[in-house]
Amino acid sequence: MGLKQLEDIWSTVKLIPFAVVLYDVKKHTYKANSQAQLIFDLPEKHTLNKADFEHLKFSSPESRKQFTIEQLFEKYLVINTNCHVLLQKQTKSLLLNAKLAQLNKHLHIATFEVIEHNQDAQYNFDKIISKISTDLIDIQNDNIDTHIGFALKAIGTVCHADRSYLFKFSEDGKSMHNTHEWVNQGIQAFKEQLQHVPTNSLPYFANLMDTTHLFKVNDVASLPIKATKEKQELEREGIQSVLCIGLRYDKELVGFIGCDCVKQKREWTDLDLIRIKLVGEIIANAFKNLNYKQELQRIQQQLITANQKLNQLVNTDSLTSIANRRCFDKALESEIKRCARAEQPVSLIMCDIDFFKNYNDSYGHQQGDEALVKVAAALKAQCRREGDLTARYGGEEFAVILPATNEQDCLHFTRLIQQTIKAAGIKHNKSSVSEYLTLSIGFYSAMPDKNSTPQCFINKADQALYKAKETGRNKVCQFK
Q: How far apart are CA 232 and CA 238, in angstroms?
C-alpha cells in the first residue's frame, strides 16, 4: 500500500465519530484521530510512535496483566471481536470497549469507545473467578503476592467492600497476622497494625471461626455483649460491616479471608458469602499446591545433590580426590573428539613416581599414601584452565590431559610439574636419583582427527614415559 493511498484511507477513517488509532506493524508507527488524541492525551502529531503512549497503562479488566500499546494491538485485541480495556491515565482510569480490524498484512485499525459505567461494575465475576483460579493453579513463590492481591481486589469489588484481606494463624493457633490486604481509594490500610494479634484477644470471633468458620456482621453496633472486644477493635478500624470466611488446609483451620465496609453498612447476601468462600477456597488450594510444589522441589534438589555426590564418587579417586581412571578415559575420548572438530592440538602427560616401591618399603604404606596425595595435589594445582584434567591412572602413575595445548606448551607444563614436585621437598632416602621424591614424565602432543583414538594417545605417552624411566628417571621425554 503506497503512502498516498494510506493517507487517502486515513483522511476518511479519522472522521469516524469515536476514537480511532491506526497501527503500522512494519514501521511501528501510529495515527490517532482527534477523539483518540483526547482520550489518550496524545500530542497533535501526524505520526505517533511508542514513546507517545508511554504515559498510559493498558490492562485487562479480567486480570492484572498490563500491556504496552504494541502488545495491545499485536496480542490482546482480537480481530472483529469486542474487547474491554482498562486505561489508566495520570489523573483517572477509564473502561474502554475496543474493536480491532485488519486493513492489510501490515496495517491494523482499532476503535475505542468509553463505557460510561463505573469500571469496577464491569467486572464479570465468572470471568474473574476463572482467571483467579487459572493464575493460582500454577502459583509460584515469586508471583504469589501479585495474584492474591488481584484476588482480594476482585472479591472486594464485587462485594462492594472497602477493604479485603487475608489472615493466617500461627502454627500453635495462638496468634494471627494479616498477610495481604486490598483497600479502596481513600480507605485506611491496617495490615501493618494487624501482625501477631493474640487469638484470645478476640474470643468471640475466635470461637465462631473455630466452630462455624464464619463471622458475618451486617452492623457492628448490633454485636452482643460477649463480643465487646471485637466491637471495640472493629470500631477502632472504622468498620461498619464485616464478613470473614475460614480457610482450611487438610481439614485444619489455617486462616481466613474477609471483607470490610467502612463508608456504609452492608446487608451481606448469600451471593457475597458464596463468592468470598469460593475465592477463599481457591487461595487455600493454591497454598496447598504451593506447599506440594515446594516439597517436590525439595525432594528433587535432594536427588540432584545425591546424584552429584554419586557422580563425584564414581569419577573420583578415593585416596587422592582427583579424577580416577574411569573419569580419565571418558574425558580423554571427549577432548580428542572436541579438539578434532575445533582443529586444536591435544597433549597427554603420563607421570610415574620414581622408585615408589622402595619408598613404601622404607617409610610404610601410610606415608606412601600421603606422598600420593601430595603429588596429586601438586599436579592438580597446575591445571588451571577449564578442560585440563589430572587423574590417578593407577598405583603411583598419574595422567594429565591438556586440551588445545601444543608440544612446546606441554613441555613447559612438564617443567612446572618438576619444579612443583621439587618444591614439595618429599624426602626419599631409597631413591638412586635424588634424596627427594621425583617423577619420570612422558608426553605426546598431536593434532587429532576423526580417526584418532584415546588408546593411541595413551600408548605413545606411555612409550615416552618408559623411555624417561629407562634413560635415568627424574626426566621428561616426548614421543616423536
A: 10
399 and 393 Cβ atoms separated by less than 8 Å? yes
Q: How confident is the model over 59-107, as pLDDT tens digits? A: 876 556 788 999 988 888 888 777 878 888 776 778 888 888 888 888 8
Q: Which amino acid is at 407?
A: E
Round to the nearest angstrom and report the end-to-end CA distance of the chain: 72
Phi-psi region of 306 (alpha: psi -120 to 50; beta: other; left: phi over 0): alpha
Half-sphere exposure of 257 (CA within 13 A, CB side): 26
> What's the pTM value of the predicted model, to 2 decimals?
0.44
User: Which residues have CB under 8 Å from 89's CB, separation 6+?
Assistant: 40, 41, 55, 56
Burial class of residue 340, CB neighbours in 10 A (0-12, 13-18, 19+): middle
Query: Residue 203 and residue 358: Cα distance in Å, rounded?
Result: 85
Helix (H, G, I), strand (E, B) or coil at 106: coil
Higher pLDDT, 81 or 180: 180
Q: Which helix (H) or strand (E) holds 338?
A: helix 325-342
* H or E, element range at 403: strand 397-403
Q: Provide DSSP, 65-77.
A: -EE-HHHIIIII-
Contact 419, 380 (CB under 8 A): no
Beta-bridge partner residues of 390: 400
